[in-house]
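Regression test attached.
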Amino acid sequence: MARLAEVADLGRTAMLLAWDQEVCMPRGAAAEHGELRATVDRLTHERFVDDRVGELLEAASPRDEIEADVVRAARREYDKARRVPADLVAEITRAAANARAAWLEATEANAFAPFAPFLERNVELSRRLSACFPEAEHPYDPLLDDFEPGMRTADARAALERLRDGLVPLVAGVPPSDDSSLDLPADEPLPEAGQRALVRTALEALGVDDDHWRLDEAAHPFSSGITSGDIRITTRYHEHDLESLFSTLHEFGHGLYEHQIDPALARTPLGHGASAAWHESQSRLWENMVGRSPGFWRWCMPHAQAALPGYFAQLTWQEVQRSVNAVRRTLIRVSADEVTYGLHVIVRFELELALIEGELEVADLPAAWNDRMRSYLGVEVPDDRQGVLQDVHWSEGLFGYFPTYAIGNVIAGQLWARIGDELPDLDERFAAGDFSALREWLGEHVHRHGRRLMPDELLERVVGGPLDPGPYLAYLERKLQASAQLMA
Amino acid sequence: MARLAEVADLGRTAMLLAWDQEVCMPRGAAAEHGELRATVDRLTHERFVDDRVGELLEAASPRDEIEADVVRAARREYDKARRVPADLVAEITRAAANARAAWLEATEANAFAPFAPFLERNVELSRRLSACFPEAEHPYDPLLDDFEPGMRTADARAALERLRDGLVPLVAGVPPSDDSSLDLPADEPLPEAGQRALVRTALEALGVDDDHWRLDEAAHPFSSGITSGDIRITTRYHEHDLESLFSTLHEFGHGLYEHQIDPALARTPLGHGASAAWHESQSRLWENMVGRSPGFWRWCMPHAQAALPGYFAQLTWQEVQRSVNAVRRTLIRVSADEVTYGLHVIVRFELELALIEGELEVADLPAAWNDRMRSYLGVEVPDDRQGVLQDVHWSEGLFGYFPTYAIGNVIAGQLWARIGDELPDLDERFAAGDFSALREWLGEHVHRHGRRLMPDELLERVVGGPLDPGPYLAYLERKLQASAQLMA
């Protein structure tokens, strides 16, 4: 337990270094900080894959159920980590650094070709990583497993095919949107001070206090649960949209998960959220299911009007709520609406799967991207910057991560249906500014467990079944119907 | 070199954790952060005192002069660290944590007695630590050596006796001060926004840029050179004094030292300032020799008047400069003026030396404190809170640190005399807002060397002689004469 506590502390320290780099570090110190992070990351890895840890895990006789779960989880991670040669890990890290630099240049030049050889190298190294696990059913399995422990590619593919087949007609059925039909004052700026005040008010209502949370600004919003008592979220302020509020709600969802984990799991491998998709289910639930609900806007509207009168004074909460749920067929994932978002992700999942399978050549990737965007979303991609080059993930060698975004939404849909059964008056509670029942429900049923259960076990326990896109699709359909009625 | 780089990176990481704890951490996360810091500190120590480091140092064949200096410094530190049993280190840490808590309570209760047994324990453990070095000439030597490598107690005592014997008559000769005689608007508040603007202006003039520096607020101002390219200083804002400016200048001096160290020494044991006293020489030089000089105030006055018109508009720079150099016989070290400060420190040095020698019992400490304050400063100590309990150091088991404050001033005095010879027009430069000549002189003669030279070697190289309080005393005498003339 002491060895694992050390590894956990080092991991937390690495997280703090990463947070500091984005939020505090003077920008001229990036290279020097890179050395600090590399050393802490390397030591974290070394101290964990050490022979002695294996001996201790082998000989472990847990004193209670938590220790039994710790040993089980640690053995799983240890066996996986020991299978990958240190040389390969170092090569992957180096290649990713080079590819990321090449991606930045290629994006600036708006040209995929110069990036292609670097991406090929990342794909090749990921395939070599995968080959360290010859027993895997599918070469993508070991990559996906890093983010969704235990999930097989076949499961992810089945779920996301059903999601895709539900979303494509849903999106196709939405009439071409027209911003001017939304009744929002498009030219009216949202002063930063007012946005800050609104974000503060929302966080206070959600139960955030200065004893355990902080909010900062970052170019790409993220959240860090340094410890369960030290939750740091970030947002950004744009003069012409409400992203600051929604990104805060999103990061709050991540942060609340880490905050409500059982303190008894601190300094163990179980003291984090269950998986990437489970984490995303929490962020998306607060951003979308809560933040775009009628109840939320009934509560929020007077605060929005007080903080940003120029923008909100002439609007009703119904107009705002309809507007923040508008569906728009656009090119960029990170600014996509709730309904089209899943299709953006599925495009990426299908393409990276084909790359890892060797069914798709990197050279053919841009054309394949553009084809899928046309057939799933009905949009034409004008250039690579607004197409295949828009996300950083592949340049960093991150394969297996994208599907967790969509699976997170699927899980959120299943949770939301379950929560609706158990807390039927939730929308009324939101309207009264009361978010505590939802917060507590999530703490009790999801958060406190940390990683004690495997992701699929947790899902079974909470919703009584396996991964199922049905509830999420039904939720989106209901929303679209309500919106169409409002428009009519 | 790789092993030492790792240890250096861990040390830097620990420094960042400490900075974060004071500046960023949500206050409810202190205990969890304590675990992170303890783990990083322990690993830093373990990785350094490892047998393998000893073998590598034994077998090292340096490829250049820097590597030769690295090996020499690392061997010295390694031999010292290996002599202290890990159990004793752990006991010292534990006792210090307990004593610090007891000190906080005792301070609140304004009573020394309940703190006495904890202080006794700290003294006893420091004596045991000292006993790990039986060859030491004096039991205080190994403690002092942690902060002033190579300095013997006899040297420190000789220098500080001379300083004391010079300061006591100097202070006694100052007429009883009368705040109202200083022509400053004592009741006029200094709004925080104006103080912030003034501090910013001063830092820009000193050469601070956002690429490598940041300024934050902290309850007890400090500075952290996380890396030479990431210098973080802190200050605090009081409505009724200019501490924000002087503490910023002080921390700038520390920060500039770390910032100007030769980048080739990064990630080695040589990449820090030469010693605690050398560091203090830099902070005190910028705070006092620069920040209380006529030239500085000729330059600063229009900026001060623009930032804080209510306070400064009716004053001349001469009035302000006289006021910031006023001598006041007071009880508290941290707010003492430049002339009496040394005596506050010498009281502590003499008492802790007697404790370690076994010549003074902890029970007799308050009376001994009060006696010395009377005989050196001519003040009566009304209670322990304003007396023996005012500083945290002893509660943390820090013996050997106090003298470095006064030795730092002595070194600053020697440097200032030397700089005056080489840059005779410095005061005129300050008046023109030009601080670059001084900054560069210090970079060239002091900063860039880091820890390549032992503290006494560095002093010999820069001023051509050993530690000598003469120049510092002469500097203070000149100031008092100038001030007396202005008053006349």
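Expected vs. actual: identical. The mean pLDDT of chain A is 95.
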